[in-house]
């Protein structure tokens, strides 16, 4: 979706003021927490620009190219999870990774979720509990090891636990806009990881790309899984599902799939960590 620079909304309160925050989680010099200042959000948008446009070949519009920032109206209502490296400083210069988190009430301020531009998510929106859209995930090239990604997942788990989120969803991307070049990956996801009908997003008719591009008998699941981007593999390890139909995003030079994750396993695991940490803190 083309970033929208024409809609001006009042900035949401800093994360520390919303009650949605959590204590920074640390692993050595790296930490994960929510953005708490406009400068940190600007640094996050600059990071996204460097990765999406300069590294991955997304096509900027005039305003994006001039600003060298990847930003859109959804940023104004989202919470922004950050990975920070304290050896680089304690301000915006420390931002090395990010994930955008949009809850139902935030999306209602705009009238819809970002994913609704590509998928019919009405079944997800009909769920009465807490839902969370994940998107715009990226990590600086120098930090793409296990530690930074584990911190992002820990941060998401903490956020989900504290905000009583029951289901997460979003669009995950594979590089390139030729679905035939991604036939193995798309077909594997279609056959082995399709979401249950009750929570299954479906690509909008005018954007629908068939995922079943190979016969099941021709698919080696191990080869297909290894070819998937790390982010999609991460969702699958959490027990995530894939929606029906892929979508081509020519601006970002990607082929997108919808991802749905029920958070039971995440919150149970985090709850055990939370209880253990609480007991150790009281000892």
Topology summary:
Blueprint (H helix, E strand, L loop, with lengths): L14 H4 L6 E3 L2 E5 L3 H18 L6 H6 L11 E7 L9 E9 H7 L8 E2 L1 H4 L4 E10 L6 H17 L2 E11 L7 H10 L9 E2 L17 H7 L2 H8 L3 E2 L4 E3 L4 E9 L1 H19 L1
- Radius of gyration from CA coordinates: 19 Å
Structural class call reads: alpha+beta
Total strand segments: 11
Summarize the amount of helix as a percent range: 25-40%
H/E order of the elements?
Answer: HEEHHEEHEHEHEHEHHEEEH
Question: How would you characterize the largest beta sheet?
Answer: 9 strands, mixed
CATH superfamily: Gcn5-related N-acetyltransferase (GNAT)
The domain tally reads: 1
Give the end-to-end Cα distance, rounded to a whole number of Å.
51 Å
Q: What ranges have pLDDT less than 50 throughout 5 or more consecutive residues?
A: 1-19, 277-283
Q: How would you sum up this structure, described in words?
A:
The N and C termini lie far apart (51 Å). The chain has helices at 15-18, 38-55, 62-67, 104-110, 122-125, 146-162, 183-192, 221-227, 230-237, 264-282; strands spanning 25-27, 30-34, 79-85, 95-103, 119-120, 130-139, 165-175, 202-203, 241-242, 247-249, 254-262. It is built from ten helices and eleven strands. β1 (25-27) and β2 form a beta hairpin. The strands form two sheets. Strands 1, 2, 3, 4, 6, 7, 9, 10 and 11 form a nine-stranded mixed sheet that branches. The longest helix is centred in the last third of the chain and has 19 residues, at 264-282. The chain has one domain: 3-Layer(aba) Sandwich (Aminopeptidase). The chain is globular, with a radius of gyration of 19 Å. It has 283 residues and is an alpha+beta fold.
């Amino acid at each position: 979706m083309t970033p929208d620079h024409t809609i001006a909304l009042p900035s949401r309160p800093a994360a520390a003021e919303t009650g949605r925050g959590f204590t920074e989680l640390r692993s050595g010099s790296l930490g994960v927490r929510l953005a708490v200042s406009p400068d940190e959000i600007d640094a996050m948008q600059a990071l996204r620009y460097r990765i999406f446009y300069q590294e991955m070949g997304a096509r900027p519009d005039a305003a994006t190219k001039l600003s060298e920032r990847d930003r859109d109206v959804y940023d104004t209502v989202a919470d922004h999870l950050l990975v920070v490296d304290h050896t680089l400083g304690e301000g915006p210069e420390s931002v090395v990774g990010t994930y955008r988190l949009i809850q139902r009430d935030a999306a209602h301020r705009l009238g819809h979720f970002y994913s609704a531009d590509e998928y019919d998510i009405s079944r997800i929106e009909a769920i009465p509990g807490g839902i969370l859209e994940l998107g715009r995930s990226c990590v600086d090239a120098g930090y793409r090891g296990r530690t930074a990604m584990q911190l992002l997942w820990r941060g998401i788990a903490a956020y989900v636990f504290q905000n009583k989120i029951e289901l997460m969803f979003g669009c995950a991307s594979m590089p390139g806009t030729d679905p035939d070049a991604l036939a193995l990956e798309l077909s594997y996801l279609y056959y082995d990881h399709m979401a249950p009908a009750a929570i299954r997003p479906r690509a909008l008719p005018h954007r629908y790309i068939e995922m079943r591009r190979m016969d099941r008998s021709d698919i080696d699941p191990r080869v297909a899984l290894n070819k998937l981007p790390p982010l999609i593999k991460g969702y699958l390890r959490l027990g995530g599902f894939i929606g029906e139909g892929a979508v081509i995003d020519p601006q970002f030079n990607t082929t997108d799939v919808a991802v749905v994750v029920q958070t039971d396993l995440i919150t149970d695991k985090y709850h055990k960590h939370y209880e253990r940490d609480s007991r150790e803190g009281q000892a």
